[in-house]
Design brief:
Layout lengths: L1 H25 L4 H25 L6 H18 L5 H15 L3 H17 L3 H10 L5 H17 L3 H15 L5 H15 L3 H14 L1 H7 L3 H14 L2
Helix pairs in contact: 1-2, 1-9, 2-5, 2-7, 3-4, 3-5, 4-5, 5-6, 6-7, 7-8, 8-9, 9-10, 10-12
């Protein structure tokens, strides 16, 4: 059973990186794209948590029961299309109530409350909730840090966002799918900060250390590298 869970997680993250990397490279100047990508990350993490803790682990305490109730509300709202901000705020409150019960179910509820708050556009609240989340699983811990980085970016604190992405890279511990995805985010923020030399160095790393990732994404990192090098030379 554990083997099946790991397979499911890897497949979801693989699909996530394939789709998001294309989008982020095509519109690197658009901060809204970083937000859109974060929503997709949040959705993937939410699906993983619901799958693992909502269906594959029976509720054994009140925290898990409340987590399941909040899950049902989230799934119902998502089944009819993109939930409204009002619905998301209400669902986030359900997850916060579950989080107050403690135990692992409460910890997962904290992360879900952060995810849903992010989707509702309340980035500061999402950050506050992520501060209370006890990171455990490597993949989910990494994506939760990526989500925190995106919160900082959308709040306008690009330096803190970049620092958080670097922390997420360390947490990823060499994961060949997550690390290049996080590097792309770092490249995008460096471009926003006009740190073109740093941006170019990241694309060089992607080409040297993750050549297969470029094929998976369907993009050409060499073009991004050439553009960053040219801008580093001109300062524009």
């Amino acid at each position: 059973m554990a083997k099946d869970k790991n397979t499911e997680t890897r497949t979801a993250i693989d699909d996530l990186n394939d789709s998001l990397s294309r989008a982020e490279l095509r519109v690197q100047n658009n901060k809204k794209n970083i937000m859109w990508a974060s929503v997709a990350v949040a959705a993937i993490v939410a699906i993983l948590l619901i799958y693992i803790y909502g269906f594959h682990r029976p509720a054994v305490n009140k925290a898990n029961n409340d987590f399941g109730l909040a899950n049902n509300a989230y799934l119902s709202a998502s089944a009819t299309g993109e939930p409204t901000d009002t619905a998301l705020v209400e669902i986030a409150e359900l997850f916060e109530a579950a989080a107050a019960n403690g135990h692992q179910g409460g910890n997962n509820a904290t992360l879900m409350a952060a995810i849903v708050s992010y989707q509702a556009g309340d980035w500061q609240k999402a950050l506050d909730l992520l501060d209370d989340y006890d990171r455990t699983d490597e993949v989910i811990a990494t994506t939760s840090q990526v989500l925190a980085g995106d919160c900082y970016v959308n709040l306008g604190d690009l330096e803190k966002g970049l620092e958080t992405f670097k922390d997420a890279q360390e947490t990823a511990d060499g994961n060949p799918l997550l690390v290049p995805y996080i590097l792309i985010k770092q490249a995008n923020v460096n471009r926003e900060l006009k740190n073109y030399s740093e941006e170019a160095a990241i694309y060089q790393t992607l080409l040297d250390e993750y050549p297969l990732y470029q094929q998976q994404c369907g993009v050409d990192f060499r073009l991004a590298l050439d553009r960053a090098k040219a801008q580093a030379g001109t300062g524009k």
